[in-house]
Amino acid sequence: MAVPRITEKNPEFDISMGYQVQQELVKIKKNQGHEIFAFKMGLTSMAKMTQMNITELIYGYIFDYMNIPDQGEISIDELIHPKVEAEIAFILSEDLQGPDITVDQVMEKTEWILPALEIIDSRYQNFKFKLPDVIADNTSASRVVLGNRKFRPQEFKIDSIGVTLMINDELRANGVSAAVLDNPANSVAILANMLYTNGKRKIPKGSMILTGGITEAILLNKWDIVTSKFDHMGEISFRVR
Ligand code: OOG
Ligand code: MG
């Protein structure tokens, strides 16, 4: 069930409190036996910033139980008002620790890139929130479907990957990876720098990072069949039941 956003009745609830709540949530999930599956960045493209009416970057976590296989299914009964967005994911070959991490350093320390569909779902009514609310809600992380092939970051230009998002054979969104901060590698660099600022933390070797939606997110309905095509990287699909 959707709930009112925190800042509605508590205007003093701020970004740092939002990240404190997020850290508590991570602890709870870990105590329940879940593992962090990936880091995620959010609101990294103009399309997403405009859609959500927030222009600051955020980060959160995707947990292992959120991972759905390509051609798999998500169950709408487990979710509130899910939306889908297409993203590029990175996997690191080395630790990445801020401050001042650059795109070139990210490229040197990236082992693989792969296409991904993120399913976001906000616990707030009407999918509306302010920045501290969405941070406390773990940046709406809900499900992820990864492409089944991964690629070396040098194989093609990471900032010119065209993406289409089709639902039931209708084109609902399309874009190019440069929409994410000019280059999705920049999203990884900023994550490393934000984690450093928030407690001198690093992105450990082997981590996966979802760099943020390239296009606006599209609302899902029961029985939807979602298919997304990425230049060079193939296709991902899943079904909503
Ligand atoms: C916040 C999460 C944003 C992205 O890729 O930009 C996000 C939201 O829009 O609910 O995951
Ligand atoms: Mg996302």
UniProtKB/TrEMBL annotation:
Single GO molecular function: 2-oxopent-4-enoate hydratase activity
GO cellular component: cytoplasm
Domain of life: Bacteria
UniProt protein name: 4-oxalocrotonate decarboxylase
Species of origin: Cytobacillus dafuensis (Bacillus dafuensis)
The organism's taxonomic lineage, starting at the top: Bacteria, Bacillati, Bacillota, Bacilli, Bacillales
